[in-house]
Specification:
Elements lengths: L2 E3 L24 E7 L5 E8 L2 E5 L5 E4 L2 E4 L3 E3 L2 E5 H7 L3 E5 L4 E6 L2 E6 L4 E4 L2 E4 L5 E3 L2 E5 H7 L3 E5 L24 E5 L7 H22 L3 H4 L6 H16 L2 E6 L2 E5 L3 E5 L6 E7 L2 E6 L16
Parallel strand pairs: 5-17
Antiparallel strand pairs: 1-6, 2-3, 2-22, 3-4, 5-6, 7-8, 8-15, 9-10, 10-11, 11-12, 12-13, 14-15, 16-17, 18-19, 19-20, 20-21, 21-22
């Protein structure tokens, strides 16, 4: 049975810009960490969500489908990922038919019909022949089919994000965001995102963060239970200046399924299908934390530390 983790990706972030500010209120939606063996070497990685947990061996791909992590066995053949046919078909609401005599499997989704034969490198999509880079196979009495081919034939968007190196408790430069979001590689599949563009989201985020930063400036002595009431006016002024500078320099980095990633005061993930749902990533005590954040709230800019 597949294991559904409904908290979004983000999942599994293993990097960050060097942030001056950290959203600290509320429990994190996600934490990630390395699990070491008795020799202190990394044995596996743990991705913990409010609704579940995935442990993955180094190099094992994670699946992010329709905004959630799904757990299933993946077989790599000819550098291509194969997954159980019923897993991928049922995830997208398609039907599966098996023909024992012909050793063939069909996936039907509306007017789309995909037919493949075990061990054959050619498939049919609505009667049109398509060459496969990895043929279907049977393992442990389960039929495995090429993941990308099936997803794209069902008109889904597919992407691959390579693994990020371990943080070792240190902050990574933002360039790391362009090459990895987890200690493990991530394969993401989603419906084509059409409701909001990254440019729309960026403008909305800047407006929300500007509003929150202005409120933070007015309330800095009282936010976070007055923890920073004794800060000098000079330190406050420098902090606000840096916040506004980072907001003005915010930019879009990449798409990860239905999420757009931005860099600014935080590494930010925003749901393209619902732009008011945003997440900020920070690192604390060697663990990556992902928290849902309302950037209009001045608490979103509570200082982690200030510097001259």
């Amino acid at each position: 049975m597949k294991k559904l983790l409904t908290i979004p990706l983000i999942f599994a972030l293993a990097f960050s810009a060097v942030p001056v500010y950290a959203a600290t209120s509320g429990d994190p939606e996600y934490t990630c960490s390395a699990i070491n063996d008795s020799q202190g070497m990394t044995d596996s990685y743990s991705y913990k969500f409010r609704t579940g947990e995935i442990d993955a061996a180094p190099g094992q791909a994670l699946l992010l489908i329709n905004g959630s992590f799904l757990s299933t066995n993946i077989i790599i053949n000819n550098d291509r990922s194969l997954v159980p046919v019923r897993f991928i078909a049922e995830t997208f609401g398609a039907k599966v038919d098996w023909n024992e005599s012909e050793q063939s499997v069909s996936i039907k989704d509306g007017a789309t019909v995909i037919t493949m034969k075990i061990g054959k490198s050619s498939a049919l999509v609505n009667a049109k022949a398509i060459e496969l880079e990895a043929p279907p196979m049977i393992s442990d009495s389960r039929t495995y089919v090429p993941l990308r081919f099936v997803a794209e034939s069902l008109k889904k968007e597919v992407g691959y994000i390579q693994a990020s190196p371990e943080s070792k408790g240190e902050y990574f430069a933002i360039e790391a965001a362009k090459s990895g979001i987890a200690y493990n590689p991530v394969i993401w599949i989603d419906n084509p995102a059409t409701l909001k563009s990254p440019d729309d989201l960026l403008a909305s985020l800047k407006a929300d963060m500007t509003q929150g930063a202005n409120a933070f400036k007015k309330e800095i002595k009282t936010v976070n239970n007055g923890l920073h009431a004794n800060l000098s006016d000079e330190i406050v002024s420098n902090a606000i200046k840096e916040i506004n500078q980072k907001i003005s320099e915010m930019e879009y980095i990449s798409q990860i399924g239905r999420y757009a990633m931005f860099k600014g005061p935080y590494v930010i993930l925003a749901d393209i299908t619902a732009g008011n749902v945003t997440y900020a990533f920070t690192i604390a005590h060697g663990l990556g934390n992902l928290r849902k954040v309302d950037f209009k709230d001045p608490e979103s800019f509570v200082p982690m530390h200030f510097s001259d």
